[in-house]
């Protein structure tokens, strides 16, 4: 179990157990976390890595790679709205698992990538609206479909989909943010 706690602009992540490598003969557990370069995705990835998980965190900009490596996160380039990019990332993870088949197992994906497109519906341009929905909805579906074979391969893999309390806390005028924050 993972518990996320937010107090005064600071995320704290608690895990109820350590990652793989616990006990004789157990395997390192491998997780893919999208949106790992900032906010809750970065804090979650850091904590999971610290707890012994192998975390492949996604990034879009090369400038984020040093920070991720320093935090113990394996950088994985991916654009969540691009099927080819997601497939390429899945091949990287699959190759890692093949090379480490005796010591690693795939635990699942955390679909955390998101964008905030706030403002009154009538003032939001169509392109940012489409991108928000692509990231939050289409991206989650593509990620799940592409990684499904790996998720099923080690019996017990999971798909964790993150949402945002912004959908509940922002005023009704922020319809675009609310629409994009609830995921399938």
Q: TL;DR?
A:
Helices cover 40% and strands 22% of the residues.
Can you lay out the helices and strands and say which pair or pack?
Blueprint: E1 2-7, E2 10-15, E3 28-33, H1 39-50, E4 54-59, H2 65-70, E5 74-77, H3 83-99, E6 104-111, H4 126-153, E7 158-161, H5 166-169, H6 175-181
Parallel strand pairs: 3-4, 3-6, 4-5, 6-7
Antiparallel strand pairs: 1-2
Helix pairs in contact: 3-4, 4-6
Task: Give structural notes.
The protein is an alpha/beta fold and 184 residues long. The chain has a single domain (2-16, 27-181), classed as NAD(P)-binding Rossmann-like Domain (Rossmann fold). The chain contains six helices and seven strands; from the N terminus they run E-E-E-H-E-H-E-H-E-H-E-H-H. A hairpin with a 2-residue loop joins strand 1 and strand 2. The longest helix is centred in the last third of the chain and has 28 residues, at 126-153.
The number of distinct β-strands equals: 7
The poorly predicted ranges are 18-24
In spatial order, strands of the major sheet run: 5-4-3-6-7
Our estimate of the beta-strand percent is 15-25%
Q: Which CATH C-level class is it?
A: Alpha Beta
Number of helices: 6
Radius of gyration: 17 Å
Taking the alpha carbons of the first and last residues, their distance comes to: 21 Å
Name the CATH superfamily assignment.
NAD(P)-binding Rossmann-like Domain
CATH architecture, please? 3-Layer(aba) Sandwich
Structural class: alpha/beta
Q: Give me the strand/helix succession.
A: EEEHEHEHEHEHH
- The level of helicity is 40-55%
Kindly list the characteristics that best describe this protein:
6 helices; 40% helix; Rossmann fold; five-stranded parallel beta sheet; 184 residues; 22% strand; two-stranded antiparallel sheet; 7 strands; alpha/beta
